[in-house]
Amino acid sequence: MSVVGINTSITFIGKVLEEGATLLRVNEIIVDQYAGGGGASIGITDGLNRSVDIAINHSKSAIELHKVNHPHTDHYCESIFDVCPLEATKGRPVGLLWASPDCKHHSRAAGNRPVDKNIRCLSWSVLKWAAMVPVRVIHMENVEELRKWGPVEEFEQGKWRPIKEKEGETFQAFIDALTTGLNKSHPAWEEIRESLGPDFAHYDKLEKGLGYELEHEILKAHEYGAPTHRQRLFIVARNDGFPICWPKPTHGNGLLPYKNTANIVDWSLPVKSIFNRKKPLVKNTMIRLAKGFQRFIVEHSDPFIVPDDQSVSFIAETTEGKVQYKARTGGSISIDGQQKFDPLGNVISENNEVLVVSHLVKFKGTNLGHVLDSPLHTICCGNHLSECRTLLIKVNDDQRANLLTKPMTCFTKNDQFGIVKIKGELYMLVDVGMRFLSPRELFNAQGFKENYIIDQDSKGNKFSQASQRERCGNSVPPPLAKALVEANFSYCQSLNVA
User: Which residues span the membrane (predicted)?
Assistant: First the structure.
């Protein structure tokens, strides 16, 4: 959607930069508001060939993660509204201000839960910076529901909810203040003054308008080389007279192939059998797993088969304790070098062909997951994405006559035979294992590089896995940030006027 300005789509054609060169003007700096996982900063660094100068976040763990990966950046661990733009910039103009305000209380994922009106107001910080210091280009990222940003009402003491009839009213006020001006009678002024406070001395600038050209579009991370379906709203505003540019997708039909989930799965990590656990999985989990098995293996025309160069591990509960065993597609099943191990007690002969298949399970909402040959679903802050690994053996001629040939519709165990047909061949279930994706796999799915530090700060203090997942869920996919930055700064560079 083009709001104000020229809607121009280009591919990065800027001239090749020499080492140390940058697309910013002399003395310009880069500010990353709400810097959490560091994805925006990585994308900006890759796109502009220089580090972010200022990073801000109220979370200590977020700042510590950012600091260990961006040691030359000035970090502010405090509320965005408590940081004075004049003091932080030290008189330097801002070439790029990137803002990714907390999205939880705008997202549809919140459902009908009460919202925090203070968190919904974080975007006003962008106006504060643009009014107080010279900011040439603004990039802002959030959930697409930000377009419905409107006033809230108190329906119980201390509980707030959006007013449906006024959806989009506040979002339009935000745009008006950045561009042509906000009418003094607009109801959003109360929220703006409450957020920016009485000491903010530039309300007149917002009424007149800050003079930016502005557009907003929905961009999808998997179309720019990240192995995730993350879809977000991006706002681009600039006041330097150059057109706003949107990057053309690099991956898709007729382009480079999408990067898929299988690319980020660490096959060396063992999965734990869902059967015979000392503490059984709850009924709803088993139902979800069974439905996923039915959809992505039994009924799927082309289940994802784990590559035969990967030896995968399962952990099973036995009467003697936990046992870890290995299997390989086209190979064998073994434990401690002994062949034919089967936790479900099926008869395995030496000429049984092994098949290992895998799919993604999603423990959120009604979505069951997906096959691994597509990008990963959107990563959130919680622990809800799992790899489900199924071990099968091909039924040989001797076994065929003795087994039920009806395709299985649920998991079976012990003395029951689970039979499934894959590509016209019958296979017998040996085991099903599951594990949650690791933080490293999730960061890889966002498009971070393997050497990006996610597990400790600069002093060696470890981050919990929950903290790592939260940082990842709040991060911007670096390839997407890079594409957007390159599009809007390489245009000026190609004209030799940046």
Answer: none
